[in-house]
Each structure stands twice: as structure tokens, then as C-alpha cells.
Automatic annotation (TrEMBL):
InterPro entries per the UniProt record, alphabetical: IS402-like_dom, Transposase_11
Record-annotated Insertion element IS402-like domain positions: 12-84
Pfam families named among the record's database cross-references: DDE_Tnp_1, DUF4096
Domain Transposase IS4-like: 101-255
Protein's organism: Hymenobacter saemangeumensis
Protein's name according to its UniProt entry: IS5 family transposase
């Protein structure tokens, strides 16, 4: 099927698509049951995540929303964006003359306001005074995503250290030995949970004499990454019925950020 529409800013470029295609081919691209180009289905997904558009309000020059959603669900369940994120992270790290897998990570979380779709699994975050979901993330020292865990917002950050540490070691091949975190991760329990996975958890604290905004060592990296991901409007609130959808959309958003950086550095053609 020939694409004749005008391009949207969220559409992938030819170089990006050449890199993406092997990850997205769950069946052959010319499979008889495929009615719409796979690239257009992915462009529709990117449009939804970048603009915050609901599925049923997809523009008419993109494939039907039901077809796009079904393909997104297949990609989500196959965890293709986790694999994509892992490989893009390695490409970018090697370009910086760093080991492909990191030895240090930073933990943090963000709370997303619930919606009628996600309200059934929401919790109340007393610190943020918000009912919704909490996304716990781990990034390397360059800000690239390694792991994401979704819980109700009332779950404490320190209680998710074990799950995050386990996901980090799976993604990095057991290479991580050190993790930085804010004061929400203070205590023996989170330190022991990280140690069980071979990670030394270090809490970066704000000095008592400091006031206002302070750029803290290491911690600013994950906060910057979360602010970048917030540009994807679908992640402004928790619009997803399933927690796994919210988790995988974060992988997709970070993959988009890393893909754009790799393309800007001309790394995709030789990857």
C-alpha cells in the first residue's frame, strides 16, 4: 500500500525505520493477513503517544484505530520496546566510549494522576497529594532507561527497590554494582533488597543548609530523563486500563528519545 499522506512530526524517518523494522516484525512484513503497512501502524502508535490523542480520534489518513491498537497490543505483549531500548542504550553508550552495559544506575519515580480508565488500580500518594499510579524507573548515568515498574501511587519507593534491582540486572546482564537514589529510599530494608541483587544502594541527600532548587550529584540525571519523557503527552496522566500498557509506553517513549539521539549522531546506519 503506497503512502500518499503528508507526514506528521511524529513519523519515523527512513533511517529510523530501517533500524526499527527487525524489532517490530512479529510476522513477515508481506504476510497475507496484513492490510496496512507496518510502518503506518507504528507511525499511528507514535502519534498517539506523542500527542496524547485517544485511539478513536486518530486522524483519518492513518490506519483504522482498532487495527492500530491491536498491533500495539501485540508489540506490548511481546515486550519489543524493552529489547529496542536495551540495544539503543548499548549503541549510545559505545559511542560515548563507555562499556555497553552500565555499572551504575539511578532510581527514582513519578506519580501520574489517574483517569476513569486507570482508576480501578489507583492509589493515593500523600506526598504528591495525588491519586493515581507511580512509575518507578532506573536509568544509567547517561539517562538511558534500564527498568520501569508500575504500582499504585500509595506504594513507597523503598518497597520497589528489589523489583527494580532485579529488572536492572536482567537488562544489564548483571553488570550493575551501584545505585544512587534520593532520600525516599533511605533505610536498611531497601539497602538489603538491592544488596540481594549485588547492588550497593547509595542515598544522595540534600544538605541541611541548602534552600531552594539544588542540582544534586547523580540524581539530576534521572530527573532530567523523566522530564524528557513527559514531552510524550500520553504519559502526562495514566490513561491506560492495564499497568503493563503504561510500563511499555514508557519504554516506547525512552526508545523514541534514544532513537532521535542516535539518528542525530548518524549511528543508525552502521548499527
Amino acid at each position: 500500500m503506497e503512502i500518499t499522506r503528508r507526514a506528521y512530526p511524529s513519523d519515523v524517518t527512513d533511517d529510523e525505520w530501517a533500524f526499527l523494522l527487525p524489532y517490530l516484525l512479529l510476522v513477515r512484513e508481506d504476510a497475507c493477513q496484513r492490510q496496512y503497512p507496518l510502518r503506518e501502524l507504528f507511525n499511528a502508535l507514535r502519534y498517539v503517544v506523542r500527542t496524547g490523542c485517544t485511539w478513536r480520534y486518530l486522524p483519518h489518513d492513518l490506519p483504522p484505530w482498532a487495527t492500530c491498537y491491536q498491533q500495539w497490543a501485540r508489540w506490548r505483549d511481546a515486550r519489543v520496546f524493552e529489547a529496542l531500548t536495551d540495544d539503543l542504550r548499548q549503541v549510545l553508550r559505545l559511542n560515548e566510549a563507555r562499556p555497553a552495559d552500565p555499572s551504575a544506575v539511578i532510581f527514582d519515580s513519578r506519580t501520574l494522576q489517574s483517569t476513569p480508565e486507570s482508576g480501578h488500580r489507583a492509589g493515593y500518594d500523600g506526598a504528591k497529594r495525588r491519586k493515581g499510579s507511580k512509575v518507578h524507573v532506573a536509568v544509567d548515568t547517561l539517562g538511558h532507561l534500564l527498568a520501569a515498574v508500575v504500582t499504585p501511587a500509595n506504594e513507597q519507593d523503598r518497597a520497589q527497590v528489589g523489583a527494580l534491582a532485579e529488572e536492572v540486572q536482567v537488562a544489564s546482564g548483571q553488570s550493575v554494582t551501584l545505585a544512587y537514589a534520593d532520600q525516599g529510599y533511605t533505610g536498611e530494608v531497601p539497602a538489603q533488597a538491592a544488596e540481594q541483587h549485588g547492588i550497593d544502594l547509595q542515598v544522595v541527600k540534600l544538605g541541611h543548609t541548602k534552600r531552594g532548587f539544588v542540582l544534586l550529584p547523580r540524581r539530576w540525571v534521572v530527573e532530567r530523563s523523566l522530564s524528557w519523557s513527559a514531552r510524550y503527552k500520553r504519559l502526562a496522566r495514566d490513561y491506560e486500563r492495564l499497568a503493563v500498557s503504561l510500563q511499555q509506553l514508557h519504554y516506547l517513549a525512552f526508545a523514541g528519545l534514544m532513537l532521535a539521539r542516535a539518528a542525530g549522531l548518524n549511528l543508525l546506519s552502521g548499527a
